Amino acid sequence: MIEFPAMKVGKTALLAVLVTCASTSPANERAVRIQGIVYAAIPCVINKNEPITQSFGDVQTTGINGHYKTITLGYSLDCTRSLTNDLRLQIRGNDAGFNSTLLRVPGYENLGIALTKDGEPLAINTWANFDSRRQPLLQAVLVKRQNSEIKAGPFRAGATLVVDYQ
Questions:
Q1: 129 or 38: which leads in pLDDT
Q2: How many Å apart are CA 9 and CA 123, to the nearest integer?
Q3: 87: closest CA among 8, 163, 160?
């Protein structure tokens, strides 16, 4: 049955359609191949689809040592639509030129941001497994290149938190 939503067809037009479809000439047949990709449901909604923002506050450049001013990244994770509890996360971003495991701080070639997941180092652009029933604790801390000095001034850095199935 063919339906035409919101369209009225009169009896004459309907008869013309039926006569046209009732033709007795042989049809030309061709095989049709249909392909596509089936995507799984999005495993989690991160921070209610809002940016995660956190501040280091005022930082004494001489105090930057990989422990000073460690901050916890506040975010929410709703994984109720996940098909499994076995998930993984990654923080994607540009690495600091002097250390590929650190997040780059634009404008500061001797400064990077180290990340941890549940107290363990989490290298930038590296997957880490987790159970969706327990939200990982993510933290960040400033790290400077060994034997370098950091100029004073404001800074910003950005990355993307990605959650996927294992």
A1: 129
A2: 65
A3: 163
- Tokens 């989690």, residue? 44
Least confident span in 29-43, 78-92, 103-117, 133-147 = 29-43
How far apart are the C-alpha atoms of 101 and 95, rounded to whole Å? 6
pLDDT at 95 over 50: yes
Confidence band for 105, pLDDT divided at 50, 70 and 90: very high
CA distance 90 to 74: 16
What are the tokens at 53? Answer: 């923002």
Neighbours of 120 (CB within 10 A): 8
Distance CA 47, CA 49 (A): 5
Residue owning tokens 């995507």 = 39
CA gap 133, 65 in Å, rounded: 33
Structure tokens that stand for 55 in this block: 């501040």
Q: What letter represents residue 158's amino acid? A: G
- The answer to whether 139 and 73 are in contact (CB under 8 A) is yes
- Full set of structural domains in the chain with CATH: 45-165 (2.60.40.1090)
Q: Is the pTM of this model over 0.90?
A: no
